[in-house]
């Protein structure tokens, strides 16, 4: 399914009634609540309810009736079509938009490619894969790594 954006991953079953634990990739629970339909691969799931739970969320889907069905979803990525997401304001981005972008220095010299975006609580970090295959994390901060012209312009000093 082309042009899908991942909002969460199923971490496992919760209880015996078919609820699942989710690891959220969206900005928060409200982002997930806006979606009525999500996809686990080709499988369409109808979101009945979602609430906070631990470090993520607890969700119930109409198609998942018991613990066995919930366990079968473990590890599944929950996606939505790109067009189902709200429009972005100036300066905003989806992590999915950054993955695959070229990373260059201020002169345009290739430094690598963005392969992942992480956030451990202090802001977004870009994982850059260098041409030699090494990977490094750099803060996605003005002056360190900027999004401009469809690529990341990075200060090479941070790509040690």
Quick tags:
160 residues; mainly beta; six-stranded antiparallel barrel; elongated
Order of helices and strands: EEHEEEHEHEEEEEE
User: Gyration radius, to the nearest Å?
Assistant: 18 Å
The biggest sheet, with number of strands, parallel, antiparallel or mixed sense and barrel status, is:
6 strands, antiparallel, barrel
What proportion of the residues form beta strands (DSSP E)? over 45%
How many H/I helical runs? 3
Strand order of the largest sheet: 1-2-5-4-3-6
Report helical residue fraction. Answer: under 10%
Shape: elongated
Low-confidence stretches: none
Quick summary:
With 160 residues, the protein is mainly β. It contains 3 helices and 12 strands. The strands form 2 sheets. Strands 1-2-5-4-3-6 form a 6-stranded antiparallel beta barrel. Strands 10-9-8-7-12-11 form a 6-stranded mixed sheet.
Outline the structure in words:
This protein is mainly β and 160 residues long. The protein contains three helices and twelve strands, in the order ββαβββαβαββββββ. The protein has helices at residues 29-33, 67-72, 95-98; strands at 4-14, 19-24, 37-40, 43-53, 56-61, 77-81, 102-104, 110-119, 124-129, 135-139, 145-148, 151-154. It has a six-stranded antiparallel beta barrel with strand order 1-2-5-4-3-6. A six-stranded mixed β-sheet has the order 10-9-8-7-12-11. A hairpin with a 2-residue loop joins strand 11 (145-148) and strand 12. The protein is elongated. The protein starts with a strand and ends in a 6-residue tail after the last strand.
